[in-house]
Amino acid sequence: MITITFPDGSSREFRRGISSLEIAERISPRLAKEVYAATVNGEIYDLTRPINDNSSLKLHKWEDEEAKHAFWHSSAHLMAEALEALYPGIKFGIGPAIENGFYYDVDPGDGRTITDADLPVIENKMKEIAARNLSYNRREVSKTEAITVFSEKGDEYKTELISELEDGTISLYTQGGFTDLCRGPHLPSTEPIKAIKLLSVAGAYWRGNEKRKMLTRIYGITYPKQKMLDEYLILLEEAKRRDHRKIGKELELFTFSPRVGMGLPLWLPKGSDIRQNLISFLTAILRRRGYKIVTTPHIGNVELYKLSGHYEKYGADSFQPMSTPQEGEQFMLKPMNCPHHCEIYNSTQHSYRDLPLRMAEFGTVYRYEQSGELHGLTRVRSFTQDDAHHFCRPDQLREEFKSIIDLILYIFKILNFNDFTAQISLRDPGNKQKYIGSDENWEKAEEDIIVAAREKNLKTTVVPGEAAFYGPKLDFMVRDAIGRKWQLGTIQVDYNLPERFDLTYNGSDNQKHQPVMIHRTVFGSLERFVAVLIENTAGKFPLWLAPEKAVVLPISEKFNDYAANVLDILNNSDICTLIDDRNEKIGKKIRDNELKRIPYLLVIGEKEVENGTVAVRKQGEGDRGSMKVEEFVSFIRREIENEIAY
RNA sequence: GCCGAUGUAGCUCAGUUGGUCAGAGCAGCUGAUUUGUAAUCUGCAGGUCGGGGGUUCGAAUCCCUUCAUCGGCUCCA
To answer: Measured CA to C1', what is the nucleotide nearest A365?
Structure first.
């Protein structure tokens, strides 16, 4: 007999070799139907895998990531079996479970392609196979045996994977006629996979290496119930409706023109107003926090970027240097503000007493992003960073860093931005040649960030290999409507630029010392931030950000004069207001202006003219009753003040 | 940059196997109506079907090429 200990601390005796599934059945048959995987002594197990020793056991129901993982991983194998049936000789790369569903990378072979149109066919095949209730059987094999299995099959991708595995750790899973290299765990059988949807096909480089073959990646998702799948698909549809590219067009915030150039956003008047509101808001906060605002040109001598290291790292992939009538002279569109800021720092001498120096700029930069990477406003070739550089003494670094974490959290809070993650991005220890600077400086900088984040009690994830080429960073990430992750705010410690630009200050010992630099943004770029704001609010911006605060709606032509009068009063009070004096019924005017997401609709008819009032209707909420025009002015002002109270 | 898909009026989309198929709704302009909280009615105008080339008696429809967009991959200072 063995003793199994459950998460609540209780324990029970079972016979040696019992499976988690059998244990679940002993507890309750209903539970057995709801579990998909188990954790045995901290290791993920198939439900059917025998347990041979005293163990702790946690059974995973759908709510647990482990359960979904097993479910979707098994679904990937199911899809592979369907593909093998439909495309004999097809070869398989990797096919993991992901956050929402699974994918499999496949090589259909000899000129065959798989397109969206083929997905329903594969889907049906999967349903047909799943209905056979095939069991997933685990088999541990030697490396030689594993290689034999897949080389006989002619699957060079699998043999490549196996060749890198250690002998003794290799397992195969078979369901029906399909066998795959896999660590597991899997479902006991295909039976629970009831609802299946293949979502898209895409190209993906084998092993993520752009020099290697491009395989076909098929994305899909499955659920134990059709209703769950339907709900997920509805969620996807709703997310699409919040897409900033769609809303940006509808609300006339920005546009692109192939004549101007791809990835070069054209901000329309309303979008510009939002930008401007964000800039004013942030500038006021920065001034209070001791930042000095600077302005630098959009271009710089190519020598500047050679000195900073940017040219060597990115020169070939940038907008190329432009020449001038002066022989040998070349300029580049600036990809970064920091070299310019270093030269501002160098324009005067600095005393240790003057540090930290905080230099901010809403600086527009230009980067030649790959054409396939461009995406609405989140990935563009011209964008305005809310950039700043802190020059400080080494002994000030940690406090300075922490003050920036405060600033970012403070602003996110005012903007009601709760759904972000903080990520510490470190150097890839296995690929140090990607970076510039000494090991010593890197170690110092990484330590600084980790400690500062810890001291601020910031919950972070640590990702090696994501650092900038000149230093590690703390990134604030958010997701967009379709689930993609984007970096907004970032804080980066940099010992390299001060060295390259020979930045100095006079210490109390009257010697020259080198300051440390911190690069930071809060929004990241105005473009990306506005995109995220659009998706978070679905275009219903808070009043202070809204480009147009109110619209006056006369019920008929008879009230146009009074309406025009109200319009003047509001606009003269700096409350950007429109008038809708079209020859339409009030219901139509309300509908159209609600769809334009105008925060306040002011209905004007006979009563309002008589009483000198406006009938206030709040966007999305409906009638708020009447108030005097002056009352409405102070009401709006108060609301704006409350929104950005800091 | 790579793989796949898409591209029809300002917007959202119909256009069956190539043959009165160049259409609809919304938006725009007309005229009527003078309206009380999410769509009043009438009429009109709008497109060399992304651009270029080809196949064909005939191309929005088939082929090639180019541009752009979308979904991924790679990249992201």
So the answer is: B77
Q: What is the ipTM of this complex?
A: 0.94
Nearest protein residue by Cα to C1' of nucleotide B39: A588
What total of structural domains would you count in chain A? 4
Whether residues A24 and A71 share a domain: the answer is no
Per-residue pLDDT, A480: 86
Which residue has 């004096």 as its token pair?
A581
pLDDT digits (tens, 9 = 90+) for A280-309: 999 999 999 999 999 999 999 999 999 999
Contact A517, A390 (CB under 8 A): yes
In a domain, A9, yes or no: yes
CA angle A383, A388, A390 (to 5 degrees): 155
CATH number for position A634 = 3.40.50.800
Q: Which of A49, A340, A519, A596 is catalytic?
A: A519
Predicted confidence (pLDDT) per residue in A573-627, tens digit:
999 999 999 999 999 999 999 999 999 999 999 999 999 999 999 998 999 999 9
What does A457-481 look like in DSSP terms, one character per residue? T--EEEEET-SBTTB-EEEEEEE-T
H-helix segments, A501-543: 526-537
Q: What is the CATH number of the domain that holds A8?
A: 3.10.20.30
Residue nearest to nucleotide B72 (CA to C1'): A202
In the set A60, A389, A390, A596, the catalytic residue is: A389
A389 flagged as catalytic: yes
Same domain, A18 and A87: no
Q: What is the pLDDT, as a whole number, of residue A606?
A: 96
Domain boundary among A483, A513, A537: A537
Closest CA to A46 of A129, A135, A132: A135
Report angle CA A412, A413, A415 to the nearest 5 degrees. Answer: 65
Which CATH number goes with the domain that contains A417? 3.30.930.10
pLDDT of the residue at A51: 94
Is A338 a known active-site residue? yes
Report the distance from CA of residue A415 to the C1' of nucleotide B77 in Å, as an integer: 27
Centre a 10 Å sphere on the Cβ of residue A305 and count the other Cβ atoms it contains: 23
Residue A271 lies in a domain: no
Domain annotation covers residue A252: no
Pair A72, A54 in one domain: no
Instruction: Specify whether A385 is catalytic.
Output: yes
Full residue range of the structural domain in which residue A509 is found: 290-537
Catalytic one among A473, A549, A596, A617?
A: A473
Range in A110-124, A365-379, A532-546 the model is least confident about: A110-124
Mark whether A504 and A601 lie in a shared domain. no
Which of A168, A214, A247 is closest to A536 using CA atoms? A247
